[in-house]
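A further point concerns the way the authors explain their paired sequence and structure data. Showing the layout once, in full, would remove most of the difficulty. For illustration, here is how one protein appears when written out as sequence plus structure tokens:
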Amino acid sequence: MRYLASSAIAVFAFGLSANSVAAKLPQVSLHSANQTPACVTPGRLTAYLKDRNPRLRERFAKIAADYMRHGENLKIRWDYAFFQMMLETNALKYTGDVHWKQNNFAGLGATGGGVKGERFRTVSDGVRAHLEHLLIYAGVYVDNPVADRTRKIQKWKVLAKWQRTIKRPMTYRDIGVKWAPKARDYAPNIEFTAQRFFKRYCDKPDPYPELLAEAQRGIKGTKVAKATQTRIEQPKKSPKLPTSLKTRAALGASEVQPSQNSVASASTTAKQSSKQFKIINQAATSTEQPEASTQQQYKVASAAGSLAAKFANPGLSTKEPSKPAAPSTSAQTDAQKQAPPAQDQQRAAQAPAASKKCRVWTASYGGQKAIIIKSSDKAHVNYTVLDVNQGREKQETAAYISAYAKGGSKIAEYDSPTMALDQAFKLCPDG
């Protein structure tokens, strides 16, 4: 592996030491306590990549989806692998020994002095080769690896002595020190590349939501249903409503122009918001027009049994909104139910769905825990996987139900959104 010095970033311009920056690097292996943040989507990573490389070749247009798909299947923190790839390839500009046609994203076999290293048949193969090489550094055995270099290092146990000196789970900082031992700024620059992404892109709408759907189609055990177009109601300003609408997953996502005369409103406060949201069990009743600044197209999709609109902003109001159009009988029934006690949540989550059609939604306050909320409208039973912050589970769940899932109730709580999502699809097999 040859680290491209020309791609190095001035970490210390912000007054940070190498150790303080690199110390933030996460563990390599993916597990319940070390999840890729929900805001990291292939679409946002692609936007970041294109900002760093405006002349990005078409061949690499979907590379972020490859990192997510292979990363989830291999159980590895693929977001930091992607940031390492940006560092190794100078944001895929390839200004070192490796040529862009090699599909070699980590300099595998490129040892310097003009040695170009390995060549992989496809972008997907090159991404998998990179991730597998990271795994063997972390001490995970890889059966039949893509890269010849990975196979040899694993077979000859080149890393065994070094790995025995680390008595804890391997982090990207550990790997950075060994991966490029002569480059003291290697691990800090991976973290700096990551922090630039988290600060600049996590709070923005996903510009390419179709990449998320494409990635999920290849993740083992993940169901992605065919989506249909939906109209997004565009209310006016309120600082208490979500800042942006994000599509978590959809097939066939398309550009949809927000309606000029159809606004779903739960209260006077909701009518004042210029941001986008979807109330999943409430009919649109207002004829107010959204502000001119909101008249732009959004890539959106709603699914009958698919992941759908994702909301981001931890500031939802807990104030009970004024009652719009009368809710359905099933929604009124759910409103009278209280959430089951903690010991009964798993049993409640296993209860069969009603005879109505069902849909799976996701929403987020940015936390790593997840709540499943069940609500009903006239035609559907809705299961929402809501990401919540630890210590604020009750407040954020109540706020979301009050604003977006009226009459709904909490039926289960999980340590990670992935676990909750799996259960939601068990409850809603239509998805």
The radius of gyration is 23 Å. Residues 186-201 form the longest helix (16 residues). Residues 129 and 146 are 5 Å apart (CA to CA). Strands lie at 227-228, 244-247, 254-256, 298-300, 302-303, 309-312, 357-364, 369-376, 380-388, 409-414.
